[in-house]
Design brief:
four-stranded antiparallel beta sheet, single chain, elongated, GTP Cyclohydrolase I, domain 2, alpha+beta, about 120 residues
Length: about 120
């Protein structure tokens, strides 16, 4: 068993409830934590036996480019796409953070984390 993590992936995207967010966009950061079997690729040193984390990145990027009003919706889409692409996933956690959200005061980020 092993854990693969892609941390602090950064995207400029257009998620948000307010019209301004959908036009101007914002910076978002994504962390993905995947629990999967790593014994075989650790022995064979063959990418065909491993969960391809370059493919993981491409999936996250694709979902981040599709605008949504809610972060929860984006996170669910990422989870769904990942489980569809990689049936070998045992469990997964996705954290999506909106940097400097428009809350009417200084806030570093707001985040939504979901696990399956």
């Amino acid at each position: 068993m092993g854990i693969i993590e892609l941390e602090n992936m950064e995207f400029h995207a257009f998620h948000g409830h307010f019209k301004e967010e959908q036009v101007v966009g914002n910076t978002f950061k994504v962390d993905v934590k995947i629990k999967t079997e790593c014994t075989k690729p650790a022995i064979t040193d063959d990418l065909d036996d491993a969960l391809d984390y370059q493919h993981v990145y491409r999936i996250v990027k694709h979902e981040m480019m599709e605008p949504s009003a809610l972060l929860e919706h984006v996170v669910k889409r990422i989870l769904d796409a990942m489980y569809n692409a990689f049936p070998e996933i045992i469990s997964m956690r996705v954290k999506l953070s909106k940097m400097n959200p428009p809350l009417g005061g200084q806030t570093d980020r707001v985040s939504v984390t979901m696990e399956r």
